[in-house]
Amino acid sequence: MSTPQATGTGTRPSTAVASPPEVSSVTPAAGSPGGGTLVTLTGSNFIQPSAVRFGPILATSFTVVSATQITAVAPPGNGTVQITVTTQGGTSNGVAYSYAGAPALTGISPTTGPASGGTAVTLTGTNLLAATAVRFGAANATSFTVISATQITAVAPPGSGTVQVMVAGPGGTSNGVGYSYVAVPVPVVSGVSPGQGPAAGGNTVTLTGSGFTGATAVRFGSTPASSFTVVSATQITAVVPPGSGTVQVMVAGPGGTSNGVGYSYVAVPVPVLTSVSPGQGPVGGGNTVTLSGSGLTGVTAVTFGSTPATSFTVVSATQITAVAPPGATGPVQITVTGPGGTSNGVTYFYVGVPTLTGAAPALGPVAGGNTVTLSGTNLLGATAVRFGATPALPFTVVSATQITAVAPPGSGTVQITAVTPGGTSNGIPYTYVAVPVLTGLSPAEGPLIAGTTVTLFGSGLTTTSAVLFDTTATSFTVVSDTWVTAIAPSGPAGPVNVRVTTPGGTSNSLVFTRVGAPGI
Predict the structure, then answer these.
(1) Which residue, 102, 183, 366, 421, could crosslink 280 as a Cys pair with Cβ 3.0–4.6 Å?
(2) CB 238 within 8 A of CB 205
(3) Around Cβ 216, how many Cβ atoms within 10 Å?
């Protein structure tokens, strides 16, 4: 046996091993069941391929464009199959390819549109998923979107008469469904209201006329409206853009551009505020104020500080009524904004709700007339003091924490409240006390010297504040509402009038007689 000879380099020659091909995509990924669709395969290692298969079936033909691209003619088939490429390196992975049936259309909506095109239509049918074209007669749709295998939306191109709409796809071209182009009238503008407005624009005008359905633009001169709304075939509302002088307002639509009607831009003064009444109100808002000034026509906003009024009404060019929003205690500037700009500010004060903490005295006669001192907070600007539902006779605001008020007549226990621009306070109790009545005393006489205990009988004695023997006050003890004991003071012989005083007033008098000691 012979021995192999070594080469000049001392190594054996090597044989290269080919890498298997890889397929990354196929375009298109669907085709007719009858075959014949030319597809492009992209991938790698397409070196000397020996076969391209659609499932188990060989491609009708194929051409190697490069190591990364092959074009192949699909054989007949059905369903979804895997396309593979075979080379000396092996067989590639598969990529999906679907045999699609011919698309079929069952409906179109709407079935009519303007000759200028632009109408969005919805096509329904089957096998629409891989659609490659939508045609209105011989004209391609302006655009189309495949929604699903059973629905496509398309924008109609310009056209005339009745045409057949068809869908083309890998499986062929569908049947046609009828679509009619109809004549659309040129819009006509007959009026604009109001016919003038501020140079700054922003106001809304109403256009009347005909043929407004499908309007695509509203122009003031050459400037588009800031926005517009087609209300009906005979009415459009539009927001005026800034401008100057007199311009022609026109409407454009599928049928063309309308005639023009005149609209004038006019100079609008900046609004001016001179006063607000009342100039203060509660922090909770809700009260109505009247703003006076000039240039208030067309005002679009009223603000209290930075907060919009809850609502407002332009009464005239010189007056606005507004409902104040809630705010924090203290001053804010009220301003108004109109076509001419934003006004100066007028000061408005938010006032805290008043509170009452005490009343002194808290008792008084049913006849009223006594002065009561009320203590509390936020009492400045008080407009009323009430004892129950009855207003105080007069009252005086001493400070933010004190009011003096004269009690009106009344009975029982009532709640005293104070009313200010900030609202109505809490209530504090005040009790009306009846005038005391004396019906008897015992003993009815005593010595000239002090010290005799006299018992007074009657009614309304609970709140007794003084017992007088003529004009001399003496010490006393309230036993009950009907019984008071008092120490008779010293004095000359003879009768004296005994009375008691309560917050309800001074009682009637009873006679107590001082008797001197008998002589010896």
Answers:
(1) 421
(2) yes
(3) 14
Phi/psi for 205 (5° steps) reads: -120, 160
Pairing of strands 51-54, 57-58: antiparallel
Nearest C-alpha neighbor of 484 from the set 466, 472, 469, 496? 466
- Report the alpha-carbon distance of residue 121 to residue 51 in Å, rounded: 45
pLDDT exceeds cutoff 80 at 402: yes
- The vertex-383 CA angle with 378 and 388, nearest 5°, equals 90
Residue 339 has pLDDT above 80, yes or no: no
First to last CA, the chain: 189
- The residue type found at 435 is V
Taking residue 171's Cβ as centre, other Cβ atoms within 10 Å add up to 22
> Is the separation of the CB atoms in 382 and 376 below 8 Å?
no
pLDDT value at 171 more than 70: yes
Gyration radius (Cα) of the chain, Å: 52
Q: Which among 411, 421, 419 has a CA at the least distance from the CA of 366?
A: 411
**Site of tokens 């890498």:** 19
pLDDT digits (tens, 9 = 90+) for 147-162: 998 999 999 999 999 9
CA atoms within 13 A on the CB side of 224: 8
CA angle 265, 268, 272 (to 5 degrees): 170
pLDDT > 90? residue 466:
yes
Closest CA to 169 of 39, 60, 32, 73: 32
Secondary structure (3-state) at 249: strand
Between β-strands 371-377 and 355-360, what pairing exists: parallel, antiparallel or unpaired?
antiparallel
User: Using an 8 Å Cβ cutoff, are 22 and 92 in contact?
Assistant: yes
Instruction: Give the number of other CB atoms < 10 A from CB of residue 249.
Output: 24
Alpha carbons 1 and 257: distance in angstroms, whole number: 104
